[in-house]
Design goal:
Length: 330
C-alpha cells in the first residue's frame, strides 16, 4: 500500500477533504489494541520502557515544563476558553481577626480555582476530537462523549500511564540557530524532525514522548501574548502524520496552542486537520502550551536530549483533556 506524500509541496491545497481522508485511512489504528481500548498510542509505554527511562536519571535535576495557571494567561475567550480564576475562601486576614471559628489560635487559608481544562499546559484526551462523527477506535462520537463526559476514553484512564522516556526535539534551535525561533506559519516536516534527531543524536522510538520546541513561547514572552492562544503559529505539517505513525511514539507535545501549523496548509477553509487524523484515527495523545525553554537550555548545556518524563493528567472523571505540570528528570 502506498502512503501519502510527506512532502508539503505535494499537498493539494484545494482539497483538504481528500488529503485528510487519505492519511486517516493510511494511519488508522482502530482495533490495534482491541475493541475495548481506552489508551491508543499510550499502549506503547510498557514497564520496560519506564525502566529504560528511569535509567536516564543521573543528576536528580527536575525541570517543570508547565506554563503558569493564572489570570495573566494567553486565553482570549475563543470557544469560551478563559484564563483561570483563582479565589480565596479563607485568608490570613480572617485568621488574624479570629473569625474562622477554630480553637486555640489556629487559622488557615483555603482557595479554589475555576478554569477550562485546556487553558494552559495540558493534554488533549482521545475524546477531544472526532472525524466524521467517529471517536477513537471507530466508536460513534455521541456514544462516547455525552453531557456526563467521556464515558469511554476519559482522561482518568491515563492517570497512571504517562511516565516514559521524553525526547526534546529542539527544531527551532536546529533550523534557526541564530534566533532559536521558528516564524509563525512555518510547517515542520518529517525531514525537519529527522534532521533535528540526527543533529542532536537523540533517536526516537516506540513508547517515547516527543516534545517539539518551536520557540513561539520564547517570542511571546518577549513580545506579549498577542494571538498566541489561537492565532498563527509554527507547528507540525499535515504531512508528518506518517512519521507520527511509524515511529510508534506514545504522545507528542509542543510549545504552541495548536500543535500543528497555523494557518493550516490549504487555500480553502480547514481547521486542525492533523488533529482530525491523529486523535480519533491514530489514537495519539497531544500536549499543547508546554514550556520547553528551560529544558531546551538544560539539554543544550548537557549535550543530551532525553530524560525521564512524568506527565500524569488529573484524574478528572470523563474529561476530554487535563491540565498538567509535566516534569523532566535528568
Amino acid at each position: 500500500m502506498s502512503h501519502p506524500s510527506e512532502n508539503p509541496a505535494d499537498l493539494d491545497r484545494q482539497n483538504p477533504k481528500a488529503e485528510i481522508a487519505a492519511r486517516a485511512e493510511a494511519y488508522r489504528n482502530w482495533g490495534r489494541w482491541g475493541d475495548d481500548d481506552r489508551l491508543g498510542t499510550l499502549n506503547f509505554i510498557d514497564a520496560a520502557k519506564r525502566v529504560e527511562a528511569a535509567g536516564l536519571v543521573r543528576e536528580g535535576r527536575v525541570v517543570s515544563l508547565s506554563q503558569s495557571f493564572d489570570t495573566n494567561g494567553p486565553q482570549k475567550g475563543w470557544r469560551r476558553r478563559t484564563n483561570p480564576v483563582h479565589l480565596m475562601t479563607d485568608t490570613g486576614t480572617d485568621a488574624e481577626r479570629g473569625n474562622q471559628g477554630f480553637p486555640h489560635g489556629i487559622g488557615g487559608a483555603d482557595d479554589y480555582i475555576s478554569m477550562p481544562l485546556q487553558c494552559s499546559t495540558q493534554w488533549d484526551g482521545l475524546g477531544h476530537i472526532f472525524d466524521h462523527g467517529n471517536a477513537w477506535n471507530g466508536r460513534r462520537a455521541g456514544e462516547v462523549v455525552t453531557s456526563e463526559g467521556d464515558q469511554v476514553t476519559g482522561i482518568e484512564h491515563a492517570a497512571s500511564v504517562i511516565v516514559s522516556r521524553g525526547v526534546l526535539l529542539d527544531v527551532a534551535r536546529h533550523l534557526r540557530p541564530e534566533t532559536g525561533e521558528l516564524e509563525d506559519g512555518y510547517a515542520i516536516t518529517a525531514a525537519d524532525l529527522d534532521a533535528t534527531i540526527a543533529a542532536q543524536g537523540s533517536p526516537v522510538g516506540p513508547g517515547d514522548i516527543v516534545l517539539v520546541r518551536t520557540g513561539q513561547l520564547t517570542r511571546t514572552r518577549r513580545d506579549g501574548w498577542g494571538d498566541y492562544a489561537g492565532g498563527p503559529a509554527p507547528g507540525l505539517s499535515l504531512t508528518t502524520a506518517g512519521w507520527l505513525h511509524r515511529t510508534e511514539i506514545a504522545a507528542i507535545a509542543t510549545d504552541t496552542w495548536g500543535f500543528e501549523v497555523r494557518p493550516n496548509e490549504f487555500d480553502v477553509p480547514a481547521f486542525q486537520p492533523l488533529h482530525q487524523i491523529v486523535i480519533p484515527n491514530m489514537g495519539l495523545t497531544i500536549g499543547e502550551l508546554w514550556d520547553l525553554d528551560e529544558i531546551a537550555a538544560v539539554c543544550a548545556e548537557a549535550g543530551r536530549y532525553d530524560f525521564l518524563l512524568s506527565a500524569a493528567p488529573l484524574r478528572i472523571t470523563g474529561a476530554v483533556g487535563s491540565p498538567i505540570n509535566p516534569v523532566a528528570i535528568l
